[in-house]
């Protein structure tokens, strides 16, 4: 039965979960503002000297390797280990993971670090394909894969890693390897603003935050995060002459959308197939 207390976005706005980001230098401000607009509290803490202490306060940890270096990789491993001790969900954006050895090795080490927490991998098709033993086919940080069996690749990645997978693009696929949700919401203008993929990772972390008491499954929570971004992007695009206005308008729509509207949309558009 739906009531105000069971609507996930309403609970998020009431509790304002603290989302610890260790993320890239390109899109950090968009992510902080996106989390605030949606109803959470962002925290960007990177230093090796304080990250283990800081992560204990977090309701979820985001790891985004967009502008990775050796120091960041060290800090990320410390944070993930600590998050796992506290059973804090870890949501990983493996930006361009197939491109360099540093990225591949760091992600492999993070995935093997600690076992107490839900781990989620959120990336575009080329990035997720790397976890399904497929060849990296991205172009820098962008990674569409026309014609590929996206659902099959996402499910295979979930089975091989034991992680919840959120694959972004024209189609979004959210799967734990058993239960799968496919979304067709969103707008092509999203690909013209850097960081909309990073933002889908941050919102996924927000919806999976530890402090939330919702009995929804992780797949259902992550699907709501992606749906929220998708429907807000559609509204923002309709009101924007170009990608600059769109980026600002997207924050406005994340701020304005209600929990009830999100639930109504979920019932209308989610294609759920237990396989
Ligand atoms: N053609 C499209 N139609 C609808 N939605 C799209 C389209 N392209 C991207 N999206 C949406 O944009 C968001 C970002 O996805 P994308 O796959 O472009 O991420 P990314 O490559 O990791 O981006 P970035 O590195 O800039 O953060 C997702 O929410 C996705 O659903
Ligand atoms: C453009 C870019 N380069 C490294 S990270 C990043 C932001 C999108 O992932």
Automatic annotation (TrEMBL):
Keywords: ATP-binding, Kinase, Magnesium, Metal-binding, Nucleotide-binding, Thiamine biosynthesis, Transferase
Broad EC category: transferase
Binding locations of ATP: 122, 168
Protein's pathway: Cofactor biosynthesis; thiamine diphosphate biosynthesis; 4-methyl-5-(2-phosphoethyl)-thiazole from 5-(2-hydroxyethyl)-4-methylthiazole: step 1/1
Catalytic activity reported: 5-(2-hydroxyethyl)-4-methylthiazole + ATP = 4-methyl-5-(2-phosphooxyethyl)-thiazole + ADP + H(+)
Domain of life per record: Bacteria
EC number: 2.7.1.50
Name under which the protein is recorded: Hydroxyethylthiazole kinase
Source organism (scientific name): Fictibacillus aquaticus
Recorded name of the encoding gene: thiM
